[in-house]
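To close the chapter, one final illustration. This time we ask the reader to focus less on the individual chains and more on the assembly as a whole: which components sit near each other, and how the overall shape emerges from the parts.
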Amino acid sequence: MGDYIVELRNISKAFGKTHALTDVNFRVGRAEVVGLIGDNGAGKSTLIKIISGVIAPDSGEIYIRGKKVDNWSVAAARRAGIETVYQDKALAEQQTIARNIFMGRELTGFLGFIRGKDAYNEANRLMRDIGFTSKVFSPDSIVATLSGGEKQGVAIARALYFDATLIILDEPTTALSLTESEKVFGFVRQIKQRGCSAIFISHNIYHVYDVADRFVILDRGRVVMSAEKHEVPSADQLVKDLQDIARTGRRIE
Amino acid sequence: MLSRFIDRNRRPISAFVVLAVLLIAFTIANPKVFLNPQLYTAVFTSLPLSIILAVPLVFVIAAGEIDLAFPSVVGVAAWACALVIQAGGNHLFAVLAALSVGALAGLLNGLLVTRAKLSSLVSTLGMNFLLRGLINLGSRGEGIPLTAQLNDAPFRFIFAGELGPIPTQMLWAIAFAIVGVLLFNYHKFGAQVCCVGDNQESAREMGINVERVRTLTYVYVGIAAGLVAILSNALNLIFWPNTGDGFLLSTLAAVFVGGTPTWGGVGTVTGAVIGTFTVGFVTTGIIAAGLTGFWTQFFYGLIIILSLLGHRFNQPRYR
Ligand SMILES: Nc1ncnc2c1ncn2[C@@H]1O[C@H](COP(=O)(O)OP(=O)(O)O)[C@@H](O)[C@H]1O
Ligand SMILES: [Mg+2]
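The assembled structure is written out below.
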């Protein structure tokens, strides 16, 4: 039981007549990367917003580290070490990398002045940790000068700094080129090596296959497939399964 | 080392270049006047008030808003201050009255923008008229002479005296500007102001209270307006109902000439101070150079446009 960081049981959520989620069971283990896959509108974002406390479910239960929680909120999720990397425009582009990493949680000392050296060094360590090997960038670099993949890296570094145990990435590679996506996959591997868990959302199976340990496929608000990596021989097989599901509405479990 | 310094200070540096070029041009046009230290003493008497107003305006603009009401906030604060002095009240109380009336008016401006969700451009324009209207109604358009009360009072020497060759209001301005630079560049408040002006959704997701930060920038303007009101009363020894009116365009021009762009997220307090000097020297320079006052507006416009072009071509290059 306690092996799961998050467990959702029988979660349903409707927006008016749209059943975004119907009776969903979902869980994330320790140091596990879950690939959450599904078409646009399948309910992926709704699912993770329930985990990060942005949306309350209509029914169902949320367990955090084996304990049932009530009145789940963004603040409570943060305190529980759940950080979300939102897909678009998550950074203040004209600011430095360091300022973005500490945005809203500045490292301050005397009278609220920022401990600039500490922030610089911490940001620098974090960037190297997460695989920013390029000497071109320092914590003082302006975010607008980074590539899309590097920006995602900064957003992930920000999540990592505050000792997240679960990092949720909502379609982090959608707007990126292949080489840039590679960088993000690198970041996700880093997350795992640190013993953290992740939920990696995508509607592109090829983007998820390599980094995820387990795949959960959502279709029209229902979990239609859940498989460990070793149960799925290849990404192509996963694509075939998904096409079957789309065509027949069949469930594989 | 040097290139890093230049990179981090592009905007104030280019503002400084504009000022230097302007001074050189004026000196060539009229060396006698521009090499005379008395000219600078004269400029230093009037400039401090603009500097004090320009500093917090950088915060408002960097936070993605604008404040056009500050001239009338100076007006109401000066009025409150003058009423207390005229009634024979304690001068320390007059100082507190100016500062708190300024801060309250600023708070009101901020709340109209952040809570009532009005456009800052239009609502502060409206407040500028509204507050000035109140002063005119209340004072019936008449001034309040303060000479009798202030002539030998410490109030006058503290706010409009001289320390050696330096007017004390210049010292107030320098102190105010230094605090502004520290707040903007090294304090949590300045960092949050920039994040809010840069990307308010992201700032909110990261737990910054966007409305509170923006409101505080208006309160900051209000406090500056209160200080300017005090200095203005001490300097003129009379309160006029139009106190503060003349600052609107020249102070805003100084902020933009100094290198703070209009779109929010970035700004420079040092640049704004330099910009104030540039704008201040234009007026003095034109008259000293032997041109008629008719040239003033023309040169204002020219300097503003040239400065903006300068900043435009001096952006750090984005990949
Ligand atoms: N705030 C909302 N109000 C109304 N409908 C919503 C809202 N959020 C999501 N939906 C609907 O719920 C369904 C699932 O959306 P979402 O979870 O965003 O899907 P995904 O992230 O998988 O693309 C969609 O039909 C979407 O239109
Ligand atoms: Mg989505």
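The interface with chain A takes residues 8, 182, 186-189, 191-192, 194-195, 198-199, 201-203, 205-208, 265-266, 316, 318-319 of chain B (CB under 8 Å). The pocket of magnesium ion (ligand 2) is lined by residues A 44-45 (CB under 6 Å). With these observations in hand, you are ready for the problems at the end of the chapter.
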